[in-house]
User: Fold these one by one.
Assistant:
Number 1:
Amino acid sequence: MSQFTLNLLFIGASFALYIGIAIYCRAKSTAEFYAANRGVSPVMNGMATAADWMSAASFISMAGLIAFTGYDNSTYLMGWTGGYVLLALLLAPYLRKFGKFTVPEFIGDRFYSPTARIIGVICLLIVSITYVIGQMTGVGVTFSRYLEVSNSTGLWIGAALVFCYAVLGGMKGITYTQVAQYVVLIIAYTIPAIFISLQLTGNFLPQLGLFGTHEASGMAFLSKLDLLVTDLGFREYTAHHNSTLDMVLFTMALMIGTAGLPHVIIRFFTVPKVSDARKSAGWALVFIALLYTVAPAVGSMARFNLTATMWPGALTGDTYSQPAVSLDAIETAPELEWMRNWQVTGLLNWEDKNGDGLIQYYNDAATEGPAVEMAAAQGLAGNELTTVNNDIMVLANPEIANLPGWVIAIVAAGGLAAALSTAAGLLLAISGAVSHDLIKGTLMPNISERGELNAARISMALSILVATILGLNPPGFAAQTVALAFGLAASSIFPVLMMGIFSKRVGKEGAIAGMIAGMLSTILYIFVYKGWFFIGGTNMLPDTPDAWLFGISPASFGTVGAVINFAVAFGVSAVSQRPPAHVQELVESIRVPRGAGDAVAH
């Protein structure tokens, strides 16, 4: 059976499962559409939350970023998991006790202002749309390779699938679909990692293989990898090279951004009791850890396998003891079919710049070392592996390692499960904000339940269309795009939720001013450095560490935006009237665990 046929079978079977669950669990009321009728158990909700959370950025892109950056990109792991601790302790149980459907609804009621609710909707839409672009990027990457279609065609196929099960099922259908998607994605991520760990280190557990011995050379695996990449002129894999300030701010942005993500928060509105919200967060951490503890091993082993493919001598101890891989081998050798397959997608490419029939892979920015000496001796004009998209590494790794076809097929299904599960959650958050907060809460308060449900489905369909169009030209790799969304959530939504729960002094004026200041400052900083502001046809400032303000990257600025939000909110509130007595009582009732067994239903 051909690899393409296997891909179709595994992907088709997973699609049929998701759509079948959505049809069976079709939402028939707004309570089912927005919050699954608050009937999801903590374990099931934890698994669904993990799938909702572990997006294309986690499954496809994170290990790729770790593969090419090493230690410095462990910030993704620390920030994202640490954020769940904040969410479980500081937000989830209190927001569940409040007992409403959406984040903007809490903001509007707590700050007794329709304007605050609308600002909350705007912030939610900006965050969620930015986030969903990353998911659609992952969908396009996966489909383009495994169904052998263009990236744009893959995006439209993914959009159609999300439309089928998200628009039909709402939160009820999405919840149980995400449970199935979690099972698919964790199996798809773990199985190839086990195979590759056994190949390289003899360890069954990838977590142990990462710190084990490279069997072919007898060296510690990470030491061998460090030697390999430094020989090629790249920086040491296990060393820290980036700005410590930026690393801390980036990790913090991911943490507080996690705690402020609307599509994650609404998952805690689906459980029966307040105590179940905290239990759900705990279970989600367990299920997330099953993948996140494997990701560093996947990233490092993917980098090793890619380099060993380009330099066969790496396996025997001397990178340059054998010639680099030849063009003839790339075009004909069965074990290099993966290179031909990924070249078709445009995400991997090479060029024989010196005409010697070999493709030399090295860091052409290096100024000394074996790579420089080799380049001088062979008359190289530059690195000849010209394109390696970070997002292909997890998906290509089983092919590079020549694993069985069924393993490659299940990885394809897993990558799609990760991207589609998060996309569905984000689209539900968007549709809830539009239909429940904007239409019912502001524009048409007397709309019928059926009308609101139809509005939710229409707004979700439009959101899918917008997300797909934007996903055709994303501002970075999947994980980079998602990181920008975390910064936006950190600067706008997290502070207002924290102040809404823990401060009786912050009023509507402070909340509105804080959200606007935090969001606008972060958007401005991102736009300036990401190349979306132009003067005379050129970008205002290059997106490089030397040009960043105090060395703070655009993805890290969310932490600064959050500080601005808090400062403006408290400053404005200090010169404004105190919130009304009934609002202060509301804050007290949310925060103090009296009658915490059953939250007031909406």
Number 2:
Amino acid sequence: MFTTKWTSFLILIGLLAISCGPPPIVYEKDLDKHDYVVARVDTLFEVTLPQLYDSIKNSDLLPLGGVLTASNARLILDSMLCDTLTGLAATTIKLDEHYNEHRMYRLRYHNALIRAFLDQEVYQKVSFDSAEVFEFYHSRPDLFSIKEQVMLFHILISPVGLKFGKDSLHFRSLPPDQFDTELKEYAHQIRRLIDIGTSFDEVAREYSHDQFAGRDGGYVGWTERGKYRHPFDSVAFSLPEGEVSQPYQDHDGWHIILVSRHMPDGIPPYDSTAYLVATQDLRNTKANAIGGQLLDSLSRLPVEYVYNEAILDTNVYLVERPVWAAVVNGTDTIDFNDLRTHEETWRSNNRVDNTTVEMKKEMITVLAEKIIMIQTARDLRCDTLPEAVEAEAYFRHVYSKSVYEADRYDHTWRPDDSLVRQYYDEHIDRFTIEKPMEIQHIIAEDSSFAEFLRDQAMAGADFLELAREYYPGEPEIRAELANLGRVGPGEIPDELYNAALMTPVGDVSSPVKTEFGYHIVKVVSRQDAIGFARASMEIVPILRRQHAQVVFGQYRDRLWDRFRVEFPGKLRPLHFKPLEYRSSKP
């Protein structure tokens, strides 16, 4: 009976230990054993643990691998759900009731619509063949001509490089004339390495003092005449392609150059690179011609304007942004926000403090040019093109979502002084220094000798050396006794502590008497407590982060209620391999 009771008790303790221990870590290979629902959104969709794992695995989270705690996995799950559900909720937003977001949606969608229009009416009408590209290339020296230049590789042997290189002691010991002789001979030795078959690239990397080109095997790139000091031009532009120069000297030292290619003045040879450049230029030239004709035709279209005459003479900055200024062809509106984008330019150009009605009508005419293009694009059904339809849906979704997300953040909130003060008082230990001073001291039997020691220390004598000589007690521990380290109130006699408080950092106090004798105190360092004004700079961001978490939590909870979100399955710590070893990464 006794044995049975104790056996049952031990089994119970074991079960409790198992149930109270940390949850087991889930590895990728074991996901099939944990294929259960961790989140359910009403009847819309579910998220299983393997699905959550895959979402995290295919992100850049934990790039070095490791274990993601269950609490952090929940934060990620919440963020994913919030983003998805915000998108669903955004479909109910009437975007035209929200001026700023609707304006941005319209601006970006109209730009996409114009791109689709130009692609259909301009770029798709550009055509040419390779023969026309060839002819275009050779007929436009104004576009394709270059100045004479060489493809340059360079080795520099400099006086500074030798004097600070691996044989610097030898070269620094030489008199000037002998140094110049050996510098020249060294440069010619480097040149002979190339003569016996060592590649220019290898020699440049090993020996060149040109810090930039040397790392790239001496590569400098295309170089025109006149870029470098004499005698570079006469050497480089007289070398046959592929030939290495003999060393030559200028102000910087000795140079060895390789010219791999030489381009004379004029149009370069017609090769694959030239073909690509000419093709792009020809396409642009033809597109500009077609586009110019298109714009000319649009400018000749009749345009009907209806002006808001009752308010058009008002300063644009005194009128609410959404108020209409004109309607173009009975369909598209220009508002006072649009006029503001041009107001300062018109004031500056006309040297006035406020634009007149006629000036505003000029602005409206300029603004209408884009509207006419958009209207033409709609007439040609460019708004039904796949890329335009996709852009419209995308931007509508983005800005509808931003309307709904307005309650997710509160960027304007700032704690008042009472909240900051409350946080400061409740966390005063964070802003006070328990041991604010680092000090050293020496004890003397009388004040006169203590004053003498102080004079020695203030004159520059090392304080701890003085302690090793004059501090009472065994010589081997005197410096240790003298160095009190960091101290706080109550740890040393009040007389010493107060003397230290009154002494500037680095100075030594006048003698102060305690029951142990006369002390002089050196203040090595002092760390003052953080006052309220300074602490406020740290506290405000903390309170703003806390407030942001509360606001997000309220936003999240409203989404959970709206979409009946449940979390039936328990999250567990998830193990991930390093990013480079993860599979199925898009």
Number 3:
Amino acid sequence: MQFKRYQTAALETLDTFLGSIKKTPLRHAFLDITDEKYNQDWFGEVPFVCVRIPTGGGKTLVACKSVERIMSTILQYKLDTGVVMWFVPSDSIKTQTLKKFKDSRDWHNEVLNESFDGKVKVFSNEEALTITPEDVRNNLCIIVASLEAFRKEASIQKKYKVYKENGALMDHFLNLKDTKDLEKDSEGEVINSLANVIRKNNPLIVIDEGHHTQTELSVQFLSDLKPSFIIEFTATPRDGSNVLVRISASELKNEQMVKIPIVLESRSQWEQVVADGLVKREELEKRAKKLAKEYIRPIALLQAQPKSKVRTTVTVEDLKQMLLARKIPESQIKIKTSDVDELEGIDLFDKKCEVRYILTVNALAEGWDCSFAYVLISVANLGAKVAVEQIIGRVIRMPNAKRKTDDALNRSYVFASAANFNEAASRIIGGLEDNGYSRSDFVGVAEEKEYSDPLEAKKAIKKDLKVPMMAIGKQKLSFEDLLGEDFELAKQNPDCDFKIHYDLDGQATIDISEDEEWLQGKQLALSFQYLDGNHSVDELVTWLDKKLRFPMLSPEDKIAFLERAVQSQIKKNKRTLPELSVNRYLLAERLNLLITERLETYTKKAYKDLLAKKKLVVAPFDSYPATIALKSPVPKVFNKNLYERIDSINGEERGFVERIDLGALDNIEFWVRNREKVDPFYIQGWKKGKFYPDFVAVTKKGNIVALEWKGEDRISNEDTSYKVEIAKEWEKLGKGKTHFFLVHNGKVDEVLAGIKAL
């Protein structure tokens, strides 16, 4: 399984945030990444962030990986154990989520178990009513629950089971010293409830489809569970959410995850709607049979009206009779309603499966997924929210997440019974927006042939731009080139140190704020039982090997180094194996820094040697493409931009680039925004990461100018100094044709003057 680029980027942004909040207050860490104010009104100092991913983008998979990131950084003192509350908006999604997490063949299960060495236990909130202290102490316990299961009734007479006294949970509350956060009965005794078990363990809370938790009551009960971290995943963040990551629909389309646009045809007569939809499905199947090496059997979903005693409705039975009258074999037709489930046990992706038509009322609203579904035929009231949800979630996913050679198979189709097209369109657009999409992702059938993606931008200036890049001969320079084949980590000095603190009883405590950083005091006293547990060097080294990801190193070399590092801690630093084992995350952090330092010391010398021996050059490689995908276009047409439009930039950057574009520099032929990890130009130095300057400008004399914009607070930090150093080497190697400028508010006029001279 490979994560998509936008999924990886989302996790990298989360990593950056998690690293920052270990050293700086929440509001500052959030502002540094988003340029937005952090809302602390709901959960105070408890971190609370939102990841926005449109429907169909794999939110749950990203959420699973996010749990690992959070547990291994901010919550590392929990030692990969404790409670994760996984809230979903409905029982059907709860059922689907539990199935994914418990099925050993499912990617979600694979990610979770790989992240936590198989020490994961998954419970429904009903199953968690018998959770044991050993479960929580030795595993990461994920409790999947609907929001409704944890909302208290206004009336004190009735409470949900999670808040009730439960003798099976009594062992969790033996010999408690601190009970201030726990709910008590009328006599002041702690209630042996699941809610109190959760409070006692200060859970990580994951909220799936976070926009469903809009009420004050929801925020209240989440706070009441005493969380240590809250992260929500949603297609449409509500006001007040701290949106850390914003993934656009265009990124999903660019990664071939979704069938966009959605093509709508509406008719006032339901019989005609059905007939048209069936013709389209048959046409798509003929096209699918022509695909090379890919099997697709397009499926049509037909949504009937509910039965009514007071008016005539088009029922599931009516639709089935219409299909049979068209000589469609009954084996190709299945019913999926709240009363009848003919899909149970059927693998719709199996080549032997005959199913091409699924009849429903609203049973597919959530908790159902088959990317072969291409056509939705709705004779129900399209204004009902459930119908629109079906359009998005059921027919929009791309089979095999791979764009097809026939463009008709890259689209979704909706045939709706409505009084007029505009009425149907407005309702569908509302549903699109509820799921993270927009008006631009929808077209009418008459526009289908002329459709052009509004989030794509073609070249406005027909020039081939290849920016020279750092190279060795005819090959782009990479970090791996600098490392070469002779580097052996196992021969490097493995010594490093870190502090282990002890409490008044002489018990070791984990401290993830060694340098008196912001999270000082997040410590966990370890029981003697755990300290005296069975530990081994092999187990600790295996764990470190998994957590420390350095793909450029051979597994044997890395393991040999880690074995030496652990032995060094035991022999030179006089650490006991139990101490190292329970402080493993702190040890991993120090070793990660140490290995990075050893690698970059070696690669910096190799880099400097190549420069001294004049073996490094700059050479052109990849062209900027003819068309690019945009996330959030700036609503402005520039005069000298290489493309028709650019992606969003902050106000300071926009002010600077407008001065380049609007004639202040008459020697500029064109310029382009250079996007990190997307566009082809970067500068490689001796560190692993690549440096992507913000803008590239080309002068009429053929000079190429790389420009990096920095805010005032980042002009002189270590990262900026490194980027300037390697950019200046790139500039020198260009022999007068490549130029670099660091730009900030206090230097704009000076930089413009420098560019004007080129």
